[in-house]
Write a structure and sequence with these properties.
Number of helices: 4
Order of helices and strands: HHHH
Helix content: over 70%
Structural class: mainly alpha
Low-confidence stretches: none
Radius of gyration: 13 Å
Largest sheet: none
Amino acid sequence: MIAKKLIYTKFGILPKTSRLLTNLELLKLGYPPITVLATDTLEYYQSLDKRYRGNYEEAYDFFYNCIIESLNEHLSFIN
């Protein structure tokens, strides 16, 4: 996992800490926190790796889809 190693070696933070910081930033912007499922972990790391290399589109798509899923989950509890 290039991105997993990249997160830890380049920034000195563990992947779980990275997800925690991501959720903190989302909460600051008024979005609900996201959950990266075990089935999505590889896609998450690949999108972070590509984002680090300058391709932001895949990371945007990944986080957009996670935010939409999270919003739908929250709305299902309200209804």
